[in-house]
Design brief:
Blueprint lengths: L19 H8 L36 H8 L5 E6 L5 H7 L2 E4 L19 E6 L2 H12 L15 E4 L10 H16 L3 E4 L4 H21 L1 H7 L5 H10 L4 H23 L3 E5 L19 H6 L3 E8 L5 E7 L5 H18 L1
Parallel strand pairs: 4-5, 4-6
Antiparallel strand pairs: 1-3, 2-3, 2-7, 6-8, 7-8
Length: 346
């Protein structure tokens, strides 16, 4: 199929082969219905996609079309990518479930890179139950199609990431609702304070991405700068100053953050956190902010967002369930259990 990266630079481009993720989907029995819109090269310039809940609101990005198509009931499953928050955030904005698995669980070969240390494939579907089934089939890991977890006795950490800034009241209300639902089911919810190394790793995401994006899009910038979307072009102008020294420091802080994350996640069974700063922006000119996603993407840990409630403007608000690296089945099981509890409450 035409694979155009949301850019006129690749107008009509047709790869000679399917990417491994597409091969895996077909091998699992899926039918590929078609392509959905992404933002240009998975950056911040909006795609021509509307939020199904409000045509004047953003569907998020970069995986805008994937989230919107699932939310509109066009398809039961869609693929997206996340370098900052491009699966979890649009899923939250559009009111669907989305999973960013552990880094490397799904193959990114054949995906146009933006930042090879961060780029992660993810899935969107109507529920965590659907995501578990699909991820198990695509990855050849039947253990991921796990039963809902027993919430009684589960230890759940609440991570607000104060170093990332504030969330809208609608997000805090959704977080508190999910914590209450879990507590009433017998779970123990505790507030977690992130160690300094995780705050530093959050800050390292930007320099790490900057240096890699400069190289990943070097040909496009050198030969087709004027055809690059405005926000991405301005960004690439700036990252030409990214140095190997800044990259090495970002990688050092990332490694320290991943080391600290082992202790952070060892305190609890799972963590719950904001999926986005709030409801979808009320303008098609913005894809939102990935500030509550970047740390988890950099750490490479599994995240699964589920819709929790509606915000003040009537748009969906999601909360993500997160666990340590490789604990994808735990995240899926707990998300399924929380979905089930909320369904009985509704």
């Amino acid at each position: 199929l035409p694979t155009q990266m949301g850019s006129p630079i690749y107008q009509g481009w047709r790869p000679r082969a399917d990417a491994p993720i597409v091969m895996a989907l077909k091998a699992a029995g899926a039918s590929v219905a078609g392509k959905t819109h992404t933002t240009a090269f998975a950056f911040l310039d909006p795609a021509p996609t509307h939020n199904p809940h409000d045509a004047t609101a953003s569907p998020g990005g970069s995986s805008a079309g994937s989230a919107a198509a699932v939310a509109a009931g066009m398809i039961p499953l869609a693929v997206g990518t996340q370098t900052g928050g491009s699966v979890i955030r649009p899923a939250s904005y559009c009111g669907v479930a989305g999973v960013k698995p552990s880094y490397g669980l799904l193959p990114t070969v054949g995906v146009k890179p933006f930042s090879w240390s961060l780029d992660t494939l993810g899935l969107m579907a109507a529920s965590a139950d659907d995501l578990g089934l699909a991820l198990a089939a695509i990855a050849g890991r039947p253990e991921l199609d796990v039963a809902p977890a027993a919430l009684k006795g589960l230890r759940i950490g609440i991570a607000r990431q104060d170093f990332a800034g504030m969330a809208e009241p609608s997000c805090e209300a959704a977080l508190q609702r999910l914590a209450r639902v879990a507590t009433e089911a017998g779970a123990q919810c505790v507030d977690l304070n992130a160690p300094a190394a995780l705050a530093a790793a959050f800050e390292a995401h930007g320099p790490l991405q900057d240096y890699e994006a400069r190289h990943a899009l070097a040909w496009e910038f050198a030969h087709h700068r004027d055809s690059i979307a405005p926000k991405l072009r301005a960004y690439l102008d700036g990252v030409q100053a990214a140095t190997p020294a800044s990259y090495d420091e970002a990688r050092r802080l990332s490694r320290r953050g991943r080391d600290a994350a082992r202790g952070f996640f060892a305190e609890v069974d799972v963590v719950i956190a904001y999926s986005a700063p709030g409801e979808a922006p009320d303008t098609m000119g913005s894809t939102g902010d990935s500030k509550f996603n970047r740390l988890w993407t950099l750490l490479g840990v599994p995240c699964l967002t589920i819709p929790v409630q509606r915000g003040a403007r009537g748009l969906p608000v999601g909360i993500q369930v997160i666990a340590g690296f490789g604990a994808d089945e735990v995240v899926i099981a707990v998300a399924k259990a929380l979905e089930k509890r909320m369904a009985t409450e509704a």
